[in-house]
Amino acid sequence: MNFEMEEVSCPLCEKSRGEPLYPEGSFQMVRCPSCQFIFLNPRPTIESLHHFYQKYLPEEEPSIESWEKMMKPIFHRAANLLEQDRRNGRLLDVGTGFGFFLVEMKKRGWEAAGVEISQKAMDYARDVLELTIFAGPLEKVDLPDNHFDAVTAFYVIEHLSHPMAFLKECHRILKPGGLLLLRYPHTTPIKNFLHFFGIKNRLYDLPAHLSDFSPKMIQQCLERIGFGKCQHSIGGYTLPTDLGKRTSSILFGGLAEALIYLSGGKLLFPGVSKTVLAFKGN
Ligand SMILES: [Zn+2]
What we know:
Blueprint: E1 5-6, E2 19-24, E3 27-31, E4 38-40, E5 43-44, H1 46-53, H2 61-83, E6 90-94, H3 100-107, E7 111-116, H4 119-128, E8 132-135, E9 148-154, H5 163-173, E10 174-184, H6 188-196, E11 211-212, H7 215-225, E12 227-233, H8 243-262, E13 274-280
Parallel strand pairs: 6-7, 6-9, 7-8, 9-10
Antiparallel strand pairs: 1-5, 2-3, 3-4, 4-11, 10-13, 12-13
Helix pairs in contact: 2-3
This protein binds zinc ion.
Zinc ion (ZN) binds at residues 10, 12-13, 15-16, 32, 34-35, 37.
């Protein structure tokens, strides 16, 4: 696929166009010398990304099923994490895809709706699973202030051109005391590790991913917007059907969990997906 590309300033601080970090194919990840944020530059324009996401999710039934299987442990853990704080309420899942997380939450007694930009995924969620889905992006849905008890977004923030605008919007639509749960990949430590051994890879998944957040960076952004307490966790590994990917997912995911357990929950193993739970202050 051909992308229309644009050169941008750092999406967080706008002070720099970034210094080259790791290339992947014809794409270049850069690091902002001012705030250390890692982002893709140049990057595809919003229009060409929107076009790209119409084809991003699998379309055939068997692939949709294996996608559900892959995400199931993540959704299960996330639901349990939310329910440590509250048993039910009104939830919005942004970038909901086919809507399987909404199904899980409705089963648990939540009033759940989703936001999605892929027309095919939206059709499936509405027609097959009979879910309430708003056509994204979130900023265009026009939801009321202080409306949701929980907002979730699994593997969304790394795809966004304007992550701060997205977080602000999540904050606005949450009730005071409401919860934001984000899940995102943190790839740079693995890139550093593989680079050290000269192992070529495309783990940044460019140009789909526009940035690579660390837990520290995500916390800074959340605090800047006004979120209160943040709680970070690893929260389960995905189960890709591909055997090689599955092994590395379980290996990195499982090792990470063992380490977090042994360190009394304090150590976040670098380089695997992370979950952050942030509270909107009263
Ligand atoms: Zn910056």
